[in-house]
Amino acid sequence: MGEKMGNRIFRISQVCEKVGLARSTIYTYISKGKFPAPISLGGRAVGWLENDIEMWIDGRVLESKQN
User: Fold this and answer.
1) C-alpha angle 58/61/65, rounded to 5°?
2) DSSP states of the chain
3) Residues 1-60 pLDDT 10s
């Protein structure tokens, strides 16, 4: 069974590396509704869907080109 594109789950360290933001900045953005919220993986573990992160990045690119 193959993995669907965008269905990978990133942990916080991977998200930080991919978007170039610190963990604290990501959580601040989440609290302000400016970054996708993580999904529960069970217990205290959370992760982000690759597609949600890619869409957020695409949105930042579009926003920067409009300014």
Assistant:
1) 140
2) -PPPTT--EE-HHHHHHHHT--HHHHHHHHHTT-SPPPEEEETTEEEEEHHHHHHHHHHHHHHHHH-
3) 445 555 899 999 999 999 999 999 999 999 999 999 999 999 999 999 999 999 999 999
Q: 10 with 45: CB under 8 angstroms?
A: no
Describe the strand order of the beta sheet including 45-49 as a list of residue ranges. Answer: 9-10, 45-49, 39-42
Spatial distance between the Cα atoms of 65 and 33, rounded to a whole number of angstroms: 21
Whole-model pTM: value is 0.84
Q: In terms of Cα–Cα distance, which of 22, 6, 11, 23 is closest to 58? A: 6
